[in-house]
Write a structure and sequence with these properties.
- With 352 residues, this protein is α/β, with parallel strands linked by helices.
- The protein folds into two domains: 128 residues, NAD(P)-binding Rossmann-like Domain (Rossmann fold); 164 residues, Dihydrodipicolinate Reductase, domain 2, CATH 3.30.360.
- The protein has twelve helices and 13 strands.
- It has a seven-stranded mixed β-sheet. Strands 2-1-3-4-6-5 form a six-stranded parallel β-sheet, with helices on both faces.
- A hairpin with a 5-residue loop joins strand 12 and strand 13.
- The N and C termini lie far apart (41 Å).
Length: 352
């Protein structure tokens, strides 16, 4: 009889679902017991993603066919669209209340129901669970995550900006009204569904901004930055689409507070993350590239001085499918199930 924990993945036919399978296949302490994909039900994972053909995995099934009480799952990853997740998690936890859940959608990231309704266009359908959920950025909420039942995995853009900025806000080291986040993401951040604007000929050899002035991740940034600063913070944030598969790179412009220099900001970040396994602060003046983190659960942060005295440029990068989604979700799983935090996700970046 196996002592491994039994894991389910809902929405396994998407990019984040596939990334979860990739990571969990080499995780020594878990086994995949359930894979759902409503449109692909009846198929094997190797039919949807040929790289998984050599591995023994459960057949894909619909969510409606799952008997949660009988499934015997220790933890479930939800890689489903927002709004869909609320009702699914509500039913799951009502029938299997001891099951842990890591939700990769945006459904439980915002603590304020009014903010959720404003940014997502409808009322939240599981308010009790929304209040119970813990924001799953491990480096900031590790202690709370360990005791949680439902973890809201952060967004990819937001993780790339929150990790470098929250320590500076907590230290009151930067001006809160002069934060500019210029972010770029690879195409997998848009999901796997067929979309005309994501065709190769629509994206290749180009570069463009989107969601200008009203991207939904702004609500997540406002929430976490305001909490860290102890007052309302509203940063400028603009996302861009890069014609690459993986990666996010954020170039962030800040002004030091009360004479803090770029070197001071670098020192704060270096000390804050000195013992963190998945955040690496480069030497002052060095900046990271997306290729430095591809396929890994690592975030790299660099700080350089602007030519204008008092201003600094912070560059942060992560793989949007790993530390920005599924790798971070496994990091949360490790905490929830009492494993060493790095197990199964300590692979270095793939380069070249």
């Amino acid at each position: 009889m196996s002592n491994k924990k039994k894991i389910g993945i809902l929405g396994a036919s998407g990019y984040t679902g596939a990334e979860l399978v990739r990571l969990l296949l080499r995780h020594p302490k878990v086994e995949i017991g359930l894979l759902t994909a409503d449109r692909r039900a009846g198929q094997m994972m190797g039919d949807v993603f040929p790289q998984f053909a050599p591995y023994q995995l459960p057949q894909l099934v619909t969510i409606d066919s799952v008997d949660w009480a009988a499934a015997g799952l220790d933890l479930v990853f939800c890689a489903l669209p927002h709004a869909t997740t609320q009702t699914v998690v509500q039913e799951l936890l009502s029938k299997a209340p001891d099951t842990k859940v890591v939700d990769l959608s945006a459904d439980f990231r915002l603590t304020d129901p009014a903010a959720y309704e404003k940014w997502y266009g409808h009322a939240h359908h599981a308010l009790d669970l929304q209040q119970e959920a813990v924001y799953g950025l491990v480096e900031l909420y590790r202690r709370d995550i360990k005791k949680a039942r439902l973890v809201a995995n952060p967004g990819c853009y937001t993780s790339c900006a929150i990790l470098p900025l929250v320590p500076l806000l907590k230290a009151k080291a930067i001006e809160t009204d002069e934060i500019v986040i210029d972010a770029k993401s690879g195409m997998t951040g848009a999901g796997r569904s067929a979309k005309e604007e994501m065709l190769f000929s629509e994206v290749s050899e180009g570069f463009h901004a989107y969601g200008v002035g009203h991207h939904r991740h702004m609500a997540e940034l406002d929430q976490e930055f305001s909490k860290a600063a102890g007052k309302e913070v509203t940063p400028s944030f603009t996302p861009h689409l890069l014609p690459i598969n993986r990666g996010i790179l954020s170039t962030i412009y800040v002004r030091g507070r009360r004479g803090r220099t770029a070197q001071d900001l670098h020192a704060i970040l270096a000390e804050f993350y000195a013992k963190e396994p998945f955040v690496h602060v480069l030497p002052f003046g060095k900046t990271p590239q997306t290729r430095h983190v591809r396929g890994s659960n690592m975030t790299m942060i660099g700080v350089a001085a602007d030519r204008v005295p008092g201003r600094a440029i912070v560059v942060s990068t992560l793989d949007n499918l790993t530390k920005g989604a599924s790798g971070q979700a496994v990091q949360n799983m490790n905490l929830l199930l009492g494993f060493a935090e790095t197990v199964g996700i300590d692979q270095p970046a793939v380069f070249p």
